[in-house]
Specification:
By secondary structure, this protein is mainly α. It has one domain (4-57, 78-116). Helices cover 66% and strands 0% of the residues. Helix 1 runs antiparallel to helix 2 (30-54), helix 1 (4-25) packs parallel to helix 4 and helix 2 (30-54) runs antiparallel to helix 4 (95-116). The relative contact order is 0.25. InterPro entries: DUF3899. Residues 34-116 form the DUF3899 domain.
Length: 117
């Protein structure tokens, strides 16, 4: 049984192949459709990487610099152990990130195949 993100990813790859076939019927060279699918795949890979990094707690523990004489901000004092616990938590890959990575990889492979033909 396919999960929802797998179904959508497979559908996007199938749509890419369908677009390439329509472009071929309209007289466009296969290399052009391969380049288009490759670029869309790269964009989807970048989106997937951004979605993974968004859940990475990269900015946990950052502090704002105070000037001399300013009072401490309410949330400025963060315990070091709390920051370490959050930063060392496992990486979570969401369904949207999986969809983007699957679709991007599939479109890149199809784009390379169409470019080589």
């Amino acid at each position: 049984m396919q999960k929802n993100w797998q179904r959508w990813g497979t559908g996007v790859i199938a749509l890419g192949i369908l677009v390439a076939l329509v472009m071929r019927v309209l007289g466009r060279p296969l290399m052009e459709s391969g380049n288009l699918l490759f670029m869309v795949g790269l964009v989807l890979l970048v989106v997937g990487a951004i979605l993974i990094l968004a859940r990475g707690h990269l900015f946990t523990g950052w502090r704002h610099r105070r000037r001399k004489g300013m009072d401490a901000l309410p949330g400025e004092k963060v315990d070091v152990h709390d920051v370490a616990t959050v930063k060392n938590s496992p990486i979570r890959v969401t369904a949207g990130a999986r969809f983007s990575l699957l679709s991007g990889t599939g479109l890149i492979v199809v784009g390379i195949i169409l470019t080589l033909i």
